[in-house]
Every structure is written in C-alpha cells, then in structure tokens.
Amino acid sequence: MNADVSGNDDPRSAWFYVVPALLWTMAFFVVPFAFMAATSFASLVRRKITYTWDLGNYLEFFDKPYLLKGLFVSLEITLAVTFISVVLAYPLAWIIAERVPKRLQRAVLILAILPFWTSYVVRSYSWLLLFSSNGVINNALMGSGIISEPLQLASTTSATIIGFVHFFVMLLTLTIYSNLVQLSPNYKRAAMDLGANTFQTFWHVILPLTLPGIMVGAFLTFVLCIGDYITPQILGGNNELVLPQIIMLQLGRRADIPAAASMSIILMLVVTAVYLLCLRWLKMERT
Amino acid sequence: MLRHRLLSLFSWTYLIAMFGFILLPVAVLVLFSFQDGTLPIPPFNGFTLKWYAEVFADQKLMAALQNSLSVAFGSSLLACLLGFFAAYGLSRYRLPASALQRVLLMAPMTVSYLIIALGLLVVFNWSGIRLSLWTVGIGHVVINLPLCFAIIYASMGDHQKNTERAARDLGANGFQVLYLITAPMLMPSILAAFFLSLTFSWDEFIISFLLSRFDVTLPVEIWSLLRSGLNPKTNAIGSLVFLLSMILLLVLETLVFRRRSKP
Does domain B42-261 sit in CATH 1.10.3720.10? Predict the structure, then answer.
C-alpha cells in the first residue's frame, strides 16, 4: 500500500486528493471538539457563555448528587444491557450457525435482525405500544386473568433495559454469528475426535475462540448504549435519568452549553477508560 | 440420543422465543397502523387505511420526509466523494505522516454523535451561523466520512494498481485514471459506502435534533409526534419508514452484495 505509482503524475498532486477530506475533518470535527472542550471550562453569566477557565462545571458535577447519580444510573443500565444482550445473543447466533440448515441461514439471520432497519425512534415507540397501561402486554395478562390491575411497565428502568436489549441482541447476534461461521470446522472435528461431547466442545474450544469477537461486540454495545438518549427518554420516563438525558436537559431548558459540554467530556472519559480496560483484558487473555 | 434430541428441542424453542421477542414490537407497530379507532392498542377493531391517508395529508410530515431524503442523499454523496479521493490519495502515493492522516480521518468514528453535535453547536453559535438543514448535513458528513473512507480504502488493492499503471503508460493523466479506471473498478465498495451512509443519515436523530431549527428531518418530526402519546398515525409513519428502509436494504443487497459475491 505504500509504493507510489510510477508514471507521469506529479506526486505532489496527491495532496489534491487528500486535502479536502482532511480540511473537512479539521474544520467540522477537530476544531468543534476543541471548542467544546474549551467551553466545558466556561460558565454561563447572564445567559451568555463566558470563558472563565475554571473547573466550576466539573466540580459541580461531582458536588450535586443528582448529577453524579446520572452517571451511576447510566453505568448500571449499560452494564446490565451489555451482559443480558451477550447472554441472549450468543445461543441465538450459535443455533443459527450450527442447527439451522446452511441454505436457510442467511434468510433466518435477515429475519432475526429485521427490526434493526426500522427507525431508532420508532423502535422505542413500538415498545411503548406493548408496555403502556392499556397496551398489548397488560391487555393479554388481564385478559387471561393473571392480574386484575394493569402493571406499571412503561416509564421504568426495566423498560429502558428491555428496549436496549432488543436492539443490541440483534447487533450482537450478527457479530457473533459472523465470528462462529469464520471458525474452521476442523476445530470442532478435532475436539469430537478426541472424545469431547457437544457441550465440552463448545465450552473448551468454540467459546474461547470466539471470545475476542464477543469482547468487540460487547464494547460496541457499551459505547452505543451509554451515549444514547432516545431509548431512556421514551421508555424510561423521568424518574431515573441517565447522563445523556441530563445533558439534553441542560441544553433544552437552561441552554447551559458549558455544563452540557463538561458532562459530555466526562462521558467520553468513562468510555475511554472502559476501552483501555477492555484492551488490557484482551491482551492478558492472549498471553 | 435422548440428550441430542433434548438439545435440538431446546434449540428450536429458544430460536422461536427469541424471534418472538425480536419481531413482536414491529408486528404490533404495523398491525395497529391499520387500527380502525383512535388508539393503537388492543382490541384490534378492524382494518382501515385512514391513518396512512392522514400521514400523506400531513404537510409537516411530508416536508420532513423530503428534508430527510435531501440531507441523506446530499451528505452521503459528499461523504463518499471526499472519502474516495482521500482513499485514493493515501493508498496510491507516499505521503508524509500518512498514518497520522488516516487516524485523523477515522477519529470521528470513536466519538459519540452527541459530542459531535455539541461541538458543532458551540462553533455555529460562536460564529453566528444559523441552524438549518445545511448544518444538519455538515454533521452527517462528519459522521459518514470515516465510514466511507474506511470502506473504500480497504478495497483499494494491488489488483487495481496494475491496471492504473497500464492506463498511465497508455497516456492517461491522473484524473482520467481516477475517473475511467479506479472509480469503475471500485464501484461495489463505493456503492456500499454510499448506501450505508444513506441509512445512517436517514435514521440519525441527535445531530438532526440539535443542529436544526425550523426545517427538520423525519426522525425529529416523529419525535415531536410522540409528545401526543400513542397514536395510530405514528404507527403508520413508523411502518412507512420501515418499508422505505427495507426497500433501501433490498437495493443494497441486489446492487452491491449480490454483485460482489460473484467472481
């Protein structure tokens, strides 16, 4: 990929190809990011952003329990979602890869990730149809006489978690499936020849081999889940706010961009920390 | 043998249960978009197309649909173009600090959309640029450029390089090589990048929400519909969005992946 094409073209003209994309990224990503980082050290004086260059916003975040709680709620929900999604998606991916006939696999997989292609906002709304007090689930439970009063399903943390799990099970099934089918069938054959049963083969051979793939999928789930605003806002209601909801609250009601900027930076630092942890853990696994 | 059968039974039960979980919300969404009544909840009263008629009669929704399509097509086209040029420059020439350039181009992928939107909001506020569909489009190019660059860069192999060299020997200039040789050869991955960008931009909410003011995209308009609670009209527009995405997916499947799988 590094040797240049010999010919009559001036190598300096290479810049002509690369510079537009670089300029775009500089102007609309790097510069805005720097601005945002700078704004996180500013404060709102009479509704105008004033660059005071202090840690006020950060200190306030760790000082006010309801702000800090948002971070913990976010972490709690995200960890639960990541764990449940992996546990549910792995068997599904395995069954599709191992039990479903080869020629049907593609169709079954497409069906399994069909709702992936509805709009993100609409998907959360669909769960609301099931969860509302007179919705599908309460209706079915009351109709069959299991409960007499409708359950409070919408506007709960569980609703947020179920909505998230629904989305990430699809994503993880896709990534884990592609991991499983890439494995050479010889691993399985060798294990079976050496006397391992189906479970032993899976536990000692297949699972460890797909672990790096699972980690990548789990990390992706973590990142997308902890930064999401839509699902908790639609399904979780207003009692247990996650960090992105609090950030949007700063922007909406008070137009407090500095506070929102500082919280976004904190959110980003948390994701970076988790990334470094994952990296370390993966390295330890390999050695 | 019994164990084997038990495992098989468990597998199929699990498969069906998970399919129920995955498909149930969409099934309910589509079913109650035909509800003959004012609430999209059981019991199902009967079949009507009235809510679809209302969607098509809703000027704001139709305007939002149009906005979404223009932003998606415009931003994907630009992202593809910028990504293609950058991929060509970086894979065909030896440039100083090329690793750093690649990292820079990929960097927006590692940052959440909320942060990208906030950064742009701060800059637009500061420089007095008014929020519009253009600012939304700028945001969408930022998130899709790394994707387009990565996809196209990954498919630029030595195979095309020899053909490009041959074209040069025969007297083609740089631009002619790009236009007549490289772009056609890479068309499958360029199309894949384009359609993937299209779906991302089409469904993107937070950047569109924060960077638009009067003209909004479809997800933002649907978002404001949600404030009125459960409504079969929301089901109808949701089902339509689903249908459009399926068509897009089908186009992607037949145009790009089918062609690629052939030798």
Answer: yes
